[in-house]
Amino acid sequence: MSTPLDARILGTGIVSRCMALALAHQGLQVGLQARRPAAAALLAGPDTPDVRTYALNPASVALLTRLRAWDALPPDARTAVLDMHIQGDAQGTLQFSAWEQAVEALAWIVDAAELETTLEAAVRYNPRISVSAEPGPAALTLIAEGKLSEERAKLGVTFERHAYGHSAVAARLVADRPHQGLARQWFRAPDIFALLPFDRPQAQVSYGLVWSLPEAQALAWRDAPVDEFEQALNEVTGGAAGTLRLASERAVWPLAIAHASSVCGAGWALLGDAAHLVHPLAGQGLNLGLADVIALDEVVAQRESWRSLGDEALLRRYARRRTFGTWAMGQATDGLWQLFSCQAPALRELRNRGMGLVDRLAPLKRWLVSRALDV
C-alpha cells in the first residue's frame, strides 16, 4: 500500500518542485503532479526552446542551496551580477554595485530550463516525494499551477489581472566583448530593454535579453529578419555592451499585474504565479514565488504538534507573512512602469532627475537593494 500523503502539490514548475523538496526535507510525505508545465503558454510555440533566464536574489539562492539544487547546476548555467547600470530616457542614470552593498553578488542569472531539469532530478531521487498524474488526498493542497490555474478557479478564488498591453521578447545574445558581470537596463518610453550577463552560449560574452514592448511591436520583432533585429538591438544599446548578435530563437509572452483575491483557506494555499504576477522589469517574479516557498516552509516547520497541516489558522500565518512583500513589489514594479511609460515632457524631466538624485543618495540605494535581495 502507498504511504498516505501529508501534502499534495498541483503544478510542476520551479516553485512547486522547490516546495515539494522543502516539505520532504521536513520528513513529510508529498505528492507532486507529474504533468510538465506548458512552455508553449509562455513562449512562442511548442517547438521553441526555452530561452528564458531568471534573476535570482540571495534568498532564493540560499533556498536552492539548502535543497541541494544550486550546487548541482552546471557552472555555466549561473552567472553572478556584480554591477548594474540603469539608463533613463534622457540623462538620468542609476548604478548599483555588489561591492558597495557588501554582498557577493546583486543577483545570479540562471538558465530557466537547466534549473527546471536540476529540480526535476532532485525530486525524482527523493524517497518522500511521489510523482503522479493526480496526487491522492492529503491534509494540505498547495496550488502552484501558474497564472492559468484551473484549481484556483474551482475554489472560487478570483484572479484580478490587469494587462499592460505589452509583451516581453526574450532571447540569448552574444557580444564581441566580455560582460564582466554587468547587467544593463534602458528605461525608454514606452519600452524597457534589459541585458542580463550570462555564460551561455559563450562564456563571458553572452546575455539574456528581456525587452518589454507594446504587444504589436514585440510580435513584429519576434518575427523580424535577424539582421534587422540585431540592428535594433545595437541602436538601443548604442554600443555600450559591444556589438550584439542573436544567438537563439526569440520568444514572446504577454505582461500583466495580477493577484488572487485570497491565497489560502481551510486545507489549501496558493504559491507563485497562481497567487501573484508582477512586471519583469525588476526581475523579481520567480523570487516572489520562492519567497512563498520559504515562508510556507517556515510556517509548517513552526506549527504546533497538535495542529493539522490544513488548519486554516496555520495557513493564514503564511498569508500574513507574504501579504506586504508581494504587495510592495507589485506596487513598485507597476509604479515604475507607469512612470516610464508616460511620454509627457515634464514627467520625463522629473523621472530622470529623480534617478540622478537616488544615485547620489547611498543610504537610499542600499535600502532599495536590500528590498530586492530579500523579497
Structure description:
This is 2-octaprenyl-3-methyl-6-methoxy-1,4-benzoquinol hydroxylase. GO terms for molecular function: 2-octaprenyl-6-methoxyphenol hydroxylase activity; FAD binding. It holds the Pfam family FAD_binding_3. This protein is α/β, with parallel strands linked by helices. It is built from twelve helices and 18 strands. Strands 5, 6, 10, 11, 12, 13, 14, 15 and 18 form a nine-stranded mixed beta sheet that branches.
Short description:
With 375 residues, the protein is α/β, with parallel strands linked by helices. It has helices spanning 14-25, 39-42, 58-66, 98-101, 112-124, 150-154, 215-223, 226-237, 285-301, 312-341, 345-360, 362-373, and strands at 5-10, 30-33, 53-56, 78-81, 83-87, 93-97, 107-111, 129-132, 138-143, 159-175, 182-188, 191-198, 206-214, 244-246, 251-260, 264-265, 268-270, 276-277.
Poorly predicted ranges? 37-46
Strand content: 25-35%
Mean pLDDT: 87
Sequence of secondary-structure elements: EHEHEHEEEHEHEEHEEEEHHEEEEEHHHH
CATH fold title of one domain = FAD/NAD(P)-binding domain
CATH architecture of one domain: 3-Layer(bba) Sandwich
Largest sheet: 9 strands, mixed
Distance between the termini: 42 Å
What is Rg? Answer: 21 Å
